[in-house]
Amino acid sequence: MFVGEGPGADEDASGRPFVGAAGQLLDKMIGAMGLAREQVFICNVVKCRPPGNRAPEPEEMAACLPFLEAQLGVLRPKVICLLGATPLKTLLGLSGITRLHGQRQEWRGIPVIPSFHPAYLLRNPEAKKPAWEDRRGEKLRA
Ligand code: URA
Fold first, then answer.
1. So where are the chain's domains?
2. Model-level pTM greater than 0.85?
3. CATH class of 2-136
């Protein structure tokens, strides 16, 4: 299961997560891992698009958390990949994606791998290689 931040304009229009440019990169990453998009579940922390595409406010993340927890509780994914700082903060209460990416965590007994958000990777292509290494979840804790 992949957890992003929140719907952008393309996602809002289609009602599906990660269908824009970041979604196309996420599709490539999932494909490179040998998986099809149909084999994974993709969702977001916040369920509505924040006005002007701004980052979600803490109250918005908190308001949506019960829905995310319900999705996780029903699906019980084998692994949760957190895409960027927002899901890392919301689900695990942790800050510092630059430090924590690739370090395996746990949510209620399910392994969690924090990694970079694909939109960040589009802006910072040099982070693609370390993000690819994250799939192992073997980076040692700093
Ligand atoms: N960015 C996200 O965090 N989620 C989406 O669904 C699309 C872009």
1. 2-136
2. yes
3. alpha beta
